[in-house]
Every structure is written in C-alpha cells, then in structure tokens.
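Researcher: Here's the sequence for the chain we discussed earlier.
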Amino acid sequence: MAGHSKWANIQHRKNAQDSKRGKVFTRFIREITVATRMSANGDPATNPRLRLVIDKALSANMTKDTIERAIKRGLGGEAGGNYEEIRYEGYGPGGSAVMVDCLTDSRNRTAAEVRHAFSKCNGNLGTSNSVAFQFNETGILSYLTNTNEDAITDAAIEAGAADIIVNDDLSIDVLTEPHSYADVYDKMVQAGFKPDESEVTMRAENMVNIELDDAQMMIKLLDMLESLDDTQNVYSNADISEDVLNQL
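Model: Thanks. This is the structure I predict for it:
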C-alpha cells in the first residue's frame, strides 16, 4: 500500500499473517501445487509463478521437503485436491475497493464465506470486474525509510525497473512488470539492495483514505477475509494512516 501509512499498513498485515502461520503454510502448499500443475513444470528456474511462491515460502521458513512434496503433488506424483482459482470483488467501508483471490475445491462454500465477511463488515460483494479495473498486476520491491534514494534509483534503472516511487514517509518502491520481477529482484540484490518487502501483487492505482469511523470495520473485514481457509491473497486500496491505527 503506497502512501503516508505504507509501513503501518504493512506491519498490520504482517502481524495478521504471522498470527495464522499454519494457514499461511497451507496457502503456500496450495499455490505451489497449482503453479506446478497449471504449467506441468516443477522447475522454478523456468516457471516464474512457482519461483515466486517458493521464495515466499522459504522466507516464511517452510522446509524444502514440504515444498518438494507440493511440487510432486502438482505434477501428479502425490494425491491431492483439485483446486480452482476464483477472484471475488467488492467494496468495503468508506468506499474502498477489495479483491480476494481464492483457491478452492468448493465454489459454493467459498462464495458463502466471502459474502458473509463482506455483509458482516458493512461491505458489499460485487460482480466480476466491478473493482478489478482499479488495480494493476505489478512487481514491487519496497525499501524502508532512511535508504539512499539516489543509489537505489540508479540500481533500479540499471536492473530494468519500470518505475521508482518515493512515498510520503520516504520509503521507496521499485516497480516492475510482472514478467521481469524475478530478474529485477536478482539484480537489485546483487547490487546490494535486498528489499525489506517484495512481491508481485495487484497494486491500486488510487488509494482511498479511511477515516477513524470506518477503519475498525475495514480492518475487521480484511482480517476476516485473510482468515478464510480458501483465501490466497487479499488486495485493497484502503489507506489507513498510522495516526488512525494508533487510535484503534
């Protein structure tokens, strides 16, 4: 989430994820299985989607044995559920846009759970493409404040980044095209600039500032969606300032 509350929002998200580490591992296993199965390719060197999720899984301390079993399942070497990818879209408190990517073996169950979360938190589940137009798939390498802006900018240009953004809190985002994310990441690390956070995500074109009255319900909605077993990723253009977070 870009903007003045960038790191406050990231920290809240990480805290929520860390509190559900077992579910995070389950999500990684599903994503590895699907990424392998869709391309019939278990080699992360030639399967960018697989490489991305493996990097995330290793960063979360998932064992290599667990990763290898998930790849074998995707290749048909081990029995496993057949999951389909579904994206749900809607609006949360304060008019914020929300997208939820799921991997599920029961479309009806997942739809009911996502709909319940939206209705419980003063949101509205929309139709396909009702908010997706507000997001672009983008690779993001994020650097904390007090980082050498000129040095990162020079390295990012050399690495082939699409754009460099300096946020209001002086943190820096290096943006990439999804297909070049891995290459830019490797070159930035080789140049001595390992990001504090990095991912290929759905980046909102415009953020919506969420005031105190709506912030608590918005956080509840995001947490409820994150906690669903079938959820893989939750995206939103909600921007909750650190001052507002501190009042909750």
